[in-house]
Design goal:
By secondary structure, the chain is α/β, with parallel strands linked by helices. It has 16 helices and six strands. It folds into three domains: about 1-145, Rossmann fold, CATH 3.40.50.300; about 150-215, Helicase, Ruva Protein, domain 3 (Orthogonal Bundle); about 220-340, Zinc Finger, Delta Prime, domain 3 (Up-down Bundle). The protein has a six-stranded parallel beta sheet, sandwiched between helices. About 30% of the residues are buried. This is DNA polymerase III subunit delta.
Length: about 350
């Protein structure tokens, strides 16, 4: 199994396989990679005759077989894409013939004609989902590509490419700031960049533009919550908590993000005490440079002992949330008060 970056490198080197199984949360990146493979492999003048696309919720094996076996016209290759191939999920109800379809495809991929490139992709239901057993079974017979979330410098590099593709330059500081504010989902990234480009027209993008057009994301909310805790302002932290919960985010998810924030702070605190450079921390922790700066400053408000104690309180709250009785919101409010008075 390879990742998005390795796939991009292979495409650039014309190292293109006959069968790809793609999966992940970022459908936009999958579609981009498919377009790049198409441009590299199929004669653009005869693309409509050598490119077949099928809906994974309705496709039959015979459709795939007929398309793959058809000899390309005025091109060395033809390409067949099955999008939203829900039958690749272990819990698939999207295609009533899922089991039969998987078995037939499994047998066929080993003998697929050399003139054909077959690509099937499945979009995860959420960012935490992992490649299914069905997908992993194809790993030795096809090129399986997991489109995990891009992080750190990889995410920043991709975002910059999108700005450039729109004919828009953005300064390094503004790019870092944008990446720290936008949700890590390429569909959303494209929409937000489009809004910024339309809003700023020919002038340079500023941090004020980004603040004006982008909605605060969950990471910002959690950072603000922890910041209020560090300032011993539990009432303000609880206000932020109420805003997050009003958005429909569950207590367990909020607690997970708070724990993650403290774990990152502990890693940064230890790194700074060991005189590791900011660049090293960014690389090791896969952080956006702007976020790393903010967290280094935030760490100055906490001792290592206080961070460890905060994590202990979070773990105790996690146990309480898993119990049946009690109001989750009340337990989160108690957590914030306990963290603020350490």
């Amino acid at each position: 199994m390879i990742n998005y970056t390795e796939l991009e490198e292979n495409i650039a080197k014309n190292n293109i396989k006959n069968v790809y199984i793609m999966c992940g949360f970022n459908e936009k990146l999958m579609k981009e990679s498919i377009s790049k493979i198409l441009k590299k492999s199929v004669n653009q003048d005869f693309e409509s005759l050598n490119y077949s696309v099928f809906d994974g919720n309705e496709v039959e094996f015979q459709d795939i077989l007929n398309a793959c076996e058809t000899v390309p016209f005025m091109s060395d290759k033809r390409m067949v894409v099955v999008y939203r191939a829900g039958f690749l999920s272990d819990n698939s109800n999207a295609n009533k013939n899922s089991d039969k379809l998987i078995k037939e495809i499994d047998k066929y991929v080993a003998n697929i004609p050399k003139h054909c490139i077959l690509i099937m992709y499945y979009v995860f239901d959420n960012a935490r989902e992992k490649p299914s057993y069905r997908i992993r079974k194809f790993d030795k017979k096809a090129c399986v590509v997991e489109f995990a979330k891009l992080r750190g410098m990889q995410f920043q590099k991709k975002v910059k490419e999108v700005f450039v593709s729109k004919g828009k330059q953005i300064g390094k500081t503004e790019l870092n700031y944008f990446c720290s504010k936008v949700e890590n989902n390429m569909d959303i990234v494209y929409n937000e960049i489009e809004k910024l480009c339309c809003y700023t027209v020919e002038r340079e993008i500023t941090k004020e533009d980004i603040d004006k057009l982008l909605q605060p994301n969950e990471t910002d909310d959690i950072f603000n919550l922890v910041d209020y805790i560090s300032k011993s302002k539990p009432e303000m932290a609880i206000t932020v908590l109420n805003e997050i919960m009003y958005k429909g985010i569950k207590a367990n998810s909020i607690l997970y993000m708070i724990e993650r924030q403290f774990k990152l702070m502990l890693s940064i605190k230890i790194g700074v005490e060991n005189r590791e450079s900011k660049e090293t921390l960014i690389k090791e922790l896969k952080l956006n440079p702007y976020v790393c700066d903010k967290m280094i400053n935030e760490c100055k408000k906490f001792t290592t002992k206080k961070i460890l104690k905060s994590l202990e309180i979070c773990l105790n709250t996690e146990k309480e949330l898993k119990s049946v009785s009690g109001d989750p919101k009340f337990k989160m409010e108690v957590l914030i008060i306990n963290l603020a008075i350490i």
